[in-house]
Design goal:
By secondary structure, this protein is of the alpha+beta class. The chain is about 25% helix and about 25% strand. The strands form six sheets. Strands 3-5-1-12-9-10-11 form a seven-stranded mixed β-sheet. Strands 7-15-14-13-8 form a five-stranded mixed β-sheet, sandwiched between helices. The longest helix is centred in the C-terminal third of the chain and has 20 residues.
Amino acid sequence: MTHRLEGREKVTGKARYAYEYPLEDPAYVSAVQAEAGKGEIVSVDAASARRLPGVLAVLSCENAPQLASRSNGELAVFQSRTVSYRGQFVAAVVAETLETAREAARRLRIEYAAEAPDVRLRDDHPGLYRPEEINTGVPADTEMGDPEAALSDSDVQVDVTYTTPAEHNNPMEPHTTVAHWNEDGSLTLYESTQGASTHQRTIARIFGLDQDQVRVVSPHVGGGFGAKGTPRPNAVLAAMAAREVGRPVKFAVPRQQMYATTGYRTPTIQRLRLGAAADGTLNAIVHDVVEQTSTVREFAEQTAAPTRIMYRAPHRRTTHRVVALDVPTPSWMRAPGETPGMYALESALDELAAAAGIDPVELRIRNDTDHEPESGLPFSSRNLVACLREGAERFGWAGRDPAPRSRRAGRRLVGTGVAASTYPARLNPGRATARAEPDGTFTVRIAAADIGTGARTALALLAAETLKADLGRVRMEVGDSSFPAASVAGGSSGTASWGTAVVRACEALRERLNGAVPPEGVEASADTRDEVKAQERYARHAFGAQFAEVEVDADTGEVRVSRMLGVFAAGRIVNPVTARSQFVGGMTMGIGMALMEESVMDERFGDYLNRDLAQYHVPACADVPGIEAVWLEESDPHLNPMGAKGIGEIGIVGAAAAIGNAVHHATGVRVRDLPITPPKLLARG
């Protein structure tokens, strides 16, 4: 068990985040957001702002330089007069101080030709369409057998609709960029990002630069949860402003502005239809999803994708329908697709268990499968049943009275619930270098991102193990696009993908070492592209089981999660200390999803009403009295050299469903529209 290598730096304040890089004579940016929900900019009056002492520049659609690439509408900052959604960046001020920039931005007067925005997702919207593919690059729809006939012939049927609201990523560190144009025309960005290499490529294309003319530096990142997986408008704006004023520029997006400019989880409307025999064996699964994208850029969440791999049923269909609304473009949020999709599926499984009179754990076990139901591929490993059984034993599931409202503790109704979890085990190509230094130490470099997950520590452990060296002799360097290229920190693929490159580089270095290290050192490198392409055809997924106990105040409807247990099968766990943090963190976010998180849209103005952490509620320590995360020893030779699966996201998958199922067990009330708030329980209790 190894604690974070950078832990001391973080607790002492020595770890340097993007905004903290000391550059000579920096200027500061304050952005202006559109007040219209849809329309055109008629004019920008910057006279008052420009008169303010210390103002260096005002940028808008009226004077902004043309970008080399405008293919990504969200990043085409100030390239047209069109307002696609309320909160879009429409102007910015660059000034000597942040206070001056903010005051000057307040003085800007922008006139709009406004139209009424269309911002409400509904399942009968005339603009709904089927995307060509969903985000994972697979078809939007799939079908096997005759699900309609199988449903009608089933002994037990469930037909239910669930909704999940828009939810916003809220990392502690905001989206921040420090931009500096060098004398040779190259650009350096100190950036809060989940992918220095991918960020580098995108920014280079937007500004018409060669890739090696852009350097992205990001050794420490204060959280991301997907929101920093791709560049956001702040990076483009900061670089544009720095070029305009000819000096370094700092821009940290205020949290209130993040709700429109840095991504969010799309709301969903999901209809689940399940048909089963009397013994609970599934005959048919139909999962129909409605979700939103923007008029700026398509983002089609893969919500029904987990339904395609979870349970055995000969007749099945999954569909995705999307509507382009006058809203910001949805984006990645922790375990995208699996999180809202498995909430609906696992809640419907619970309803099926109740209708069939079968224990919810037993129902899932009866419908387990040894191959992916729709692709037919065998699983590289699948220990869902083991997770369910281990969890049931640890949680004390035996003897549970299935009847709702069967337990009380004073005025509190007590209930328990279960849900399964799954997430793909991905492997992306990457490169790494390993160097033996004359002093007996080793330096390993890869442009990976440590966004607070402990990636730096896990990679150092793998390097030390491969080099057969003490951990203290390995220096792990990450978070810089000048290092060998790495995939983004997303999709729970980091340790597997970067770790493979690190292991291969260290193996190559060991082969080159022969006696004493010369004064110039010895270096070896690895590129895993061919290895990734040559992978055997298996369905690779992590699995888990979530158990929750809740207490619901019978008078107020207030819900408390008294305890949670997550049992996971995720291959080899490289570092138990940081792994537990990832599992527990995901489960905590699941509590937020179930009970608190909801971005409320004002349909008249097209804006989110709760745009800060005073109104957008997330769990605090008092909301998490007891969470236990454990894992099974799982050996899987078909994954990567380490036998590791991703763990960053599976903790949130299934957590909200387990809580919702527990609330139903406690109260007898099935709330199908998240979050589960007291008014929803009291109105139907």
